[in-house]
Design a protein that fits this description.
Number of helices: 13
Structural class: alpha+beta
Distance between the termini: 32 Å
Helix content: 40-55%
Number of strands: 12
Strand content: 25-35%
């Protein structure tokens, strides 16, 4: 599988030495090493120090965005299905110092608090065959983009300006749509459920299940009502117990409520519908999550719940990529070097996902019929 991927991306590396090194770098990311930083990878490659690895990521002549496109094509080829979905999420990379591109005191879900960290925004493709990443962007806080000297020191080009996490997500979605990915739904948490993102998706006729905060308001009987109040006033018969997918300890069971929204805007005409989806914890009904849903008018509750539950696939993917292929174990500071390490790590993760999917398919086809 690694040989197949290396052949695919080979043309992106002009020199034979760099092509050979990236093959060995991917081997190192896939190897059972305790750590996958520059020194550990160099040792696995049989080198005396991390200079070669650092040069591959920071100075060698190759196009990381072209490799990203190869990654996306590889994922489509092996995991693409008509009912696939794209999922958005972010993750933090805890860092020391102030030199790494985009590092700042900011909230990191990884740490569960504000921490000195970099934040990466990621796009994952999920289908019944498996779930793998197809794109990535590094979030640059305004304190960075307003300081061009600091940007220059980190290798951030003059034309790179501030973009919110939602805007970065929209760029990645636009690339995925332009590439013709087989996508039926888009999912994401509250960072990506804001009005402009939903309107943008609706204008393109894209289906979504996007989380929104409890303070989000909807119009009911001509009045704007916060979602917390709407949920509190629902009668007991409005709730249905359904599974949001399989977890590590079995089905993820919650209570769900499903409300059709009428008169939202013209985008929900021509056979399309808009809904509010509410999830609450079985043991603690006060713990609720809210989703805005836009899709075909024939969409049913079970389908919306399936897509809402699909968001966990990216959390699991980030955990896998960090644990298995060293997504967070880089020791580079430069802007472009970050993209290069992350892209190769996501490619290594995709190799694992596709290998798992093919093995599962072989097991299913070889299983004797009763």
């Amino acid at each position: 599988m690694l040989a197949e991927v290396h052949e695919r991306i080979g043309p992106r590396f002009g020199r034979a030495e760099v092509r050979s090194r990236v093959h060995r770098f991917l081997q190192g990311l896939l190897a059972p090493l305790e750590r996958k930083n520059g020194w550990q990878l160099a040792e696995d490659l049989g080198e005396h120090g991390p200079r070669g690895v650092q040069r591959l990521l920071g100075e060698a002549d190759w196009d990381e965005d072209a490799v990203r496109d190869d990654l996306r094509a590889y994922v489509i080829e092996h995991l693409g299905e008509p009912h696939g979905m794209l999922v958005l999420d972010e993750t933090g990379f805890i860092k020391k110092g102030k030199k790494s591109a985009g590092v700042a005191q900011q909230y990191s879900g990884t740490a569960g608090r504000r921490e000195n960290s970099q934040i990466g925004v990621f796009l994952l493709y999920a289908s019944d065959a498996g779930a793998a990443f197809v794109d990535r962007e590094l979030y640059l806080p305004e304190e960075w983009t307003s300081d061009r000297v600091r940007c220059q020191e980190a290798g951030i080009a003059e034309e790179v300006g501030f973009a919110s996490k939602g805007e970065l997500a929209q760029r990645m979605l636009a690339r995925a749509f332009a590439a013709g990915m087989p996508v039926q739904w888009v999912g994401g948490d509250t960072v990506y459920g804001y009005d402009e993102m939903r309107s943008w998706l609706e204008e393109q006729g894209r289906n979504y299940v996007l989380a929104v905060p409890e303070t989000h308001a909807i119009w009911i009987a001509g009045q704007s009502q916060p979602l917390g109040l709407v949920a509190a006033l629902l009668p007991p018969e409005a709730w249905t117990v359904l599974s949001a997918g399989e977890g590590r300890q079995g089905p993820r069971l919650y209570e769900w409520a499903w409300l059709a929204l009428s008169g939202e805007d013209e985008a929900h005409s021509q056979g399309r519908g808009a809904w509010l989806l509410i999830r609450r914890n079985l043991s603690d009904p006060g713990k609720r999550a809210y989703y805005r849903v836009s899709g075909p008018g024939s969409t049913i509750l079970e389908e919306a719940v399936r897509v809402a539950g699909g968001r966990w696939s990216i959390e699991e993917g980030l955990e896998e990529a960090k644990g298995e292929v060293g997504l967070d174990q880089y020791e580079v500071r430069g802007y472009r070097a970050w993209y290069r390490h992350i892209t190769l790590a996501l490619l290594a993760h995709a190799i694992l996902v596709v290998t798992r999917a093919q093995e599962k398919k072989r097991e299913e086809t070889s299983r004797p019929l009763n």
